[in-house]
Amino acid sequence: MATQLPTDAEVFYDFLGHQIENGGRENSPEELLAYWRQEHAEAVEDIRQGLRNMEAGLGRPFEEVDAEMWKKYGV
């Protein structure tokens, strides 16, 4: 069974709901969109940095981190 990823529109909808529930209802739509874009840009840069680190041989092997998470959290 394939998992369907949410669309950008669905993720943005969830983001807006979270912002409104947590004090963002005073912000204008333009402010919320600017915040969304900033968060998205930061996430993309974090992913790119992770890929650069991986290519440079930095970090820990997935198998090691996975085993640690199973041991620590049972996931």
Q: Could you provide a short overview of the structure?
A:
With 75 residues, the protein is mostly helical. It contains three helices and no strands.
Descriptive overview:
The longest helix has 27 residues, at 29-55. The chain is extended and about 45 Å long. It starts with 7 loop residues before the first helix and ends with a helix. It has helices spanning 8-21, 29-55, 62-73. The protein is built from 3 helices and no strands. It is mostly helical and 75 residues long. Helices cover 71% and strands 0% of the residues. The model has no long low-confidence stretch (mean pLDDT 91).
The total of helices stands at 3
- Give the H and E element order: HHH
Question: Overall pLDDT, averaged?
Answer: 91
Report the strand count.
0
| Uncertain regions spanning at least 5 consecutive residues | none
Rg to the nearest angstrom? 17 Å
Q: State the oligomer.
A: single chain
* Share of β-strand residues: under 5%
Structural class: mainly alpha
Apparent shape = extended
**Biggest sheet, in brief?**
none
Distance between the termini: 20 Å
* Helix share, percent: over 70%
Question: What are its keywords?
Answer:
single chain, 3 helices, 75 residues, mainly alpha
Reconstruct the topology from this structure.
Layout: H1 8-21, H2 29-55, H3 62-73
